[in-house]
Each structure stands twice: as structure tokens, then as C-alpha cells.
Design a protein that fits this description.
mainly alpha; 60% helix; elongated
Length: 73
């Protein structure tokens, strides 16, 4: 018997798990295809929370990286 990657007890739980996993995979694929970002599984929650801000800052990312931070003395 093959080892299951996700655990469920009933068919309803199985559907919910598959639905969640498919949704996450689609989200990751969207960001990879459209924004060239490789999103890891542990970063999904943060990305979902700040997705509109991330979309706004991506075009100016190189500029933001070139800025120099001034440390407080």
C-alpha cells in the first residue's frame, strides 16, 4: 500500500485537502509564470497577506535594492 502524503479520514476531508493543495499549487504557479518568483510553501501565508504590496514593488525592486540604509548612531 502506498504511503499517503496527506491524511484524511472521510471523502469530504479528502476533497478539502485536494482542493487546498490544488489552490496552493495554482497560486505558486501564477507567481512563477507572471512575476518570475519562486514561492516556497512556508512563504505562502506571507505572500497572500501582502500580495498587492508585492505586486506594486516588483517593478522598482532593483531601485529599492540599490538604496543604502543609514544606521542610527
Amino acid at each position: 500500500m502506498p504511503l499517503r502524503k496527506y491524511e484524511w479520514e472521510t471523502e469530504d476531508e479528502k476533497k478539502e485537502v485536494r482542493k487546498r493543495v490544488d489552490r496552493e499549487k495554482k497560486f505558486v504557479k501564477y507567481w512563477k509564470d507572471n512575476y518570475n518568483l519562486n514561492v516556497k510553501e512556508d512563504q505562502l501565508d506571507m505572500l497572500k497577506k501582502y500580495k498587492s504590496e508585492i505586486k506594486k514593488i516588483l517593478p522598482i525592486m532593483d531601485f529599492v535594492r540599490s538604496l543604502e540604509l543609514i544606521e542610527n548612531i
